[in-house]
Amino acid sequence: MIKLGLRFEDAYDERRFVRQFTLDDLGRTQGAMVLGAFVYCAFGVWDWILDPTHWTTTFAIRLTVTTVALLPLTAVLSNVRAQTHAEIIYLAYCIIPGCVLSFIYLLLVSGFNHAAAGTIIVILFVSTLLPLRVLSLLAFCVSTWICFAVCQSMSVDDRAGLHFVNNFEIGMSYALALYAVGAREIRARHQFQTTRALQREKERSEAALTDLTNAQTHLVQAEKLASLGQLVAGVAHEVNTPIGLALTTSTALEADIKHFARIVKTGQIRRSDLTQIIGHLEEGTRLLFSNLTRAADLVQNFKQVAIDQTNEARRTFELQSWLQELMSTLGPLLRRKGHEVSISCEPGIMLDSYPGSLAQVISNLALNAIIHGFADGRAGKLELSAARVADDKLRIVFSDNGDGISDENLSKVFDPFFTTRRGEGSTGLGLHIVFNLVSATLNGEIEMKSSVDQGTEFIIYLPI
């Protein structure tokens, strides 16, 4: 049966197929069963035409079979528990009237002169309107044919060769029905296998997509932390200068205060000494204030950018001041490399978006320019501009005058893991993350223009 395609090797698949095959479109099948019961009784008219004497008996038999077997079997299929035995119910529905039909022909005078036609109609009904598999149909064929042959052998008929003709016609009908049902079952099994394969492939694809989404989330987070690490290094370097100056100034002030204390203890305070010490204190406090203020501003800006880059909350913010804060944290890293940075932003733009994702985009573009645009270590120029292009649309342009990108690589820069500096630690995810953040999170678009030795320009369109 497995080689013929009429059974699955996997028992679980076989059970699922049988249930689906027998219960698919159950309402239509029950409608056909009700129709079959009606037709079975309606053939009482045929009995009356063939034998007006005995037709009342045969009609009573037909009506009994209908009310006791056919209609109850049809109704029981509505029970969920009974549906697990649907094929057995179908088989009983077919065999009972099929076998009784031969007995009815035996009661009618010359009933077997027309028995083949009535039996063939039953075969057609069973094979076309009921979801029987080949084995079940074979059981129906064997049982009803045996009953037909037995009843026909008990009948009295003067026509020579009628037994052979009837059995030949019925046998051919059985053969055709078996072939048709077998072909239908094989097609249904192929369709079931295809559906199962597609379902399994869909589940594998969904699992792979989930894994990919999780991996992408981790990569984005790792890229954020990496850019924050770059910011930490740059800010630490930049903060070190004002803190160091403040420390030196405080040391000098401490020395002046100790000198002043010694003069006070001797009681020999000259006006010139007092004036000099006061001047030193004024200059020292001014330097302390300016350097500590500078350090505090750097720390505050870095704190805001760090919060934005690790927080996906949406909020409304003033773009110009936000860009200045962001670039002030990137400034130490860029100036350490000797790069010149210019910012141009139309004032008064209130952007309702995700500052963390936008900060990640601009930070990645800046770091990408440093690493790839000025790979030889030379100093360059970075420009960042933002302006409205419509009432509800913003254009941000980030450009550099670096090495540019070759024509063959232009179509690949946003692809994941594409990089020309893999041997130097690049992962090829920076611009891919930029593209995903702009298109998915910020609901915008990004374009790129570049040519070798002519620099690179990224144009981002965002909804305000």
Describe the structure.
The protein is an alpha+beta fold. It has 2 domains: 11-205, no CATH class; 312-464, Histidine kinase-like ATPase, C-terminal domain (Heat Shock Protein 90, 2-Layer Sandwich). The protein has helices at residues 11-23, 26-42, 44-50, 55-76, 86-107, 115-129, 134-153, 162-266, 271-310, 319-336, 355-373, 430-441; strands spanning 315-318, 340-345, 350-353, 381-390, 393-400, 445-450, 456-463. α5 packs antiparallel against α6. The protein starts with 10 loop residues before the first helix and ends with a strand. The mean pLDDT is 83. Keywords: Membrane, Transmembrane, Transmembrane helix.
Structure at a glance:
Helix 6 (115-129) packs parallel to helix 8 (162-266), helix 7 (134-153) packs antiparallel against helix 8 and helix 8 crosses helix 10 (319-336). With 464 residues, the chain is of the alpha+beta class.
Key features of this structure:
12 helices, 5-stranded mixed β-sheet, Heat Shock Protein 90, alpha+beta, 464 residues
What is the topological layout?
Blueprint: H1 11-23, H2 26-42, H3 44-50, H4 55-76, H5 86-107, H6 115-129, H7 134-153, H8 162-266, H9 271-310, E1 315-318, H10 319-336, E2 340-345, E3 350-353, H11 355-373, E4 381-390, E5 393-400, H12 430-441, E6 445-450, E7 456-463
Parallel strand pairs: 2-4
Antiparallel strand pairs: 1-3, 4-5, 5-7, 6-7
Helix pairs in contact: 2-4, 3-4, 4-5, 5-6, 5-7, 6-8, 7-8, 8-9, 8-10, 9-10, 9-11, 11-12
